[in-house]
Amino acid sequence: MDGTMLPRSVLIRRAAVALVAAVAVVCVNAEVLPEIMYSVAVPHDVAPAHIVHKIKLKEGQVVNRLMDTQYSDYFAVLDNGEVMTVAKLVPLLGKTVTLRVATTFEGGDSQVYVIRVAVKDHQTMLRFLKPEYDATVYESLPAGTELQGLDEMEAMGEEDVKYELLGGHSVFALHHVGGIPTVVTRKSLDREAQDMYKLTLRAHDKEGMDMAEAKINVHILDMNDHAPVFTQNMFYFFVPLNVTRFDKIGRVTAHDGDGDVVVYRLAYPSNTFTIVPQTGEIMLIEPPETMVYELELEAFDKRKPTLYSDTLAKAHIEFRYPGDSLFTGETNDVDYDLYPEHALSKRSATRVKRGQLRHTKELVFSEADGAVEGKVVFQLEKEIQWETFKIRDDNPWVEVDANGAVRVKKKWDYEELGPEKTIDFWVTITNNDRNERYGKWQAATKGQIGQSE
């Protein structure tokens, strides 16, 4: 260079070349991302500032401008991606216009959003009569049961409408009957597990331009499908003999899976006890005639239709002297392993089937115990209050009353009792329950009475 000044035109051309090179370096890694297209419909009579669509911008993405098109003067785009009207759309009625929104990312990438806007008469646009519907269906019904309350859920404004159900796909399905949408269950429902579902019904036209949505709140109705269940199969109550009439001796409980009110009653009437229907408390109404009673109990719910407990519970009631070491008051929680002598009483309290034998009784007496004819020498124990006793074969030494009292029939003579010095006899036990739930059985008890000098 000799220091000669270059012409201005040459300087400008060189500067332009440098600028182009710089821009090329900056943008060499920038990409033009694929266009994204949306289709929407708007009423022709909306006022300016009506939001037509909102572009969901990504992090680092900014709106550049609304690109010029034939109808772009009717719209504008905001920095947050909202596309809105800036003029009345009446001149565009019946037209579908295309808008293009240019955006860029921090790294230089660019992306264009294409928005097709159908301007329609508001009376012909898709719409539901209500924005939200409440539907009902009973629990425990089979799959395919139709939800009630959706009779007026058909979209209006278009003849050829397609529907889709959003949410609850594993529980509900959408059916079309004569073009009217109906919702049915896919499976049997359980109100106790879930009592309400929220769905959305979407309607759109065949071009996919117009769309309307309605919310559906599905309420699962309770059906009386759980009968009460007793918390125990057998309730044990140990009661002091000094209780008085109308004292409450214990309480039984049952649970209802539907949460219904449980009512209690005796399966068979008793002259000695009653049960409070609302609470399950067992009450003494007459003085006890025996030391042990066994009641059968039934529970049912206070609903229509009424459901009854599938199995009866039992209440084993045992009267004891107040000082007895086994007396526990009004409790059902007795650890029988701690009381081996009482375990036999627990076992013998279970129902005796036809033809079973009860335990042989072996008692020891002196000759003087049988010196008075008619004297009660011991008492056979009832396992349930309706039992009566009868000696099976005629015995010269003893006789048995219906209430189980064993009496001296003939004065005992030690020398005449034979080599074993015992009095053996069999007793037949009959259940006189009016419903004859247990029937009759024989050879239930064998008694042995020995005599000592």
CATH architecture of the largest domain: Sandwich
CATH H-level superfamily of the largest domain: Cadherins
- Poorly predicted regions are 1-6, 15-27, 327-357, 434-453
Radius of gyration: 46 Å
Largest sheet: 4 strands, mixed
For the residues shown, what is the average pLDDT? Answer: 79
In total, the number of strands is 29
Shape: rod-shaped
CATH topology of the largest domain: Immunoglobulin-like
Name the CATH class of the largest domain: Mainly Beta
End-to-end distance: 156 Å
Share in helix: under 10%
How large a portion of the residues is in β-strands, by DSSP E? 35-45%
Summarize, please.
The chain has helices at residues 8-27, 340-348, and strands spanning 36-43, 51-54, 61-66, 75-77, 82-85, 96-105, 110-120, 132-138, 161-166, 172-177, 180-185, 196-205, 211-221, 229-230, 234-240, 248-251, 254-255, 262-266, 273-275, 281-284, 292-301, 313-320, 361-366, 376-379, 387-391, 398-400, 405-408, 422-431, 440-452. It is mainly beta and 453 residues long.
Task: Give an account of the 3D structure.
Residues 129-230 form the Cadherin domain. The chain is mostly beta strands. It folds into 4 domains: 36-123, Sandwich (Immunoglobulin-like); 126-221, Immunoglobulin-like (Sandwich); 231-348, Sandwich (Immunoglobulin-like); 361-452, Cadherins (Immunoglobulin-like), CATH 2.60.40. Helix content is 6%, strand content 40%. It has helices at residues 8-27, 340-348, and strands at 36-43, 51-54, 61-66, 75-77, 82-85, 96-105, 110-120, 132-138, 161-166, 172-177, 180-185, 196-205, 211-221, 229-230, 234-240, 248-251, 254-255, 262-266, 273-275, 281-284, 292-301, 313-320, 361-366, 376-379, 387-391, 398-400, 405-408, 422-431, 440-452. The strands form 9 sheets. The protein has a 4-stranded mixed sheet with strand order 1-7-6-3, with no helix packed on it. It has a 4-stranded mixed sheet with strand order 8-13-12-9, with no helix packed on it. Strand 28 (422-431) and strand 29 (440-452) form a beta hairpin. It is rod-shaped. Mean pLDDT is 79; it is low at 1-6, 15-27, 327-357 and 434-453.
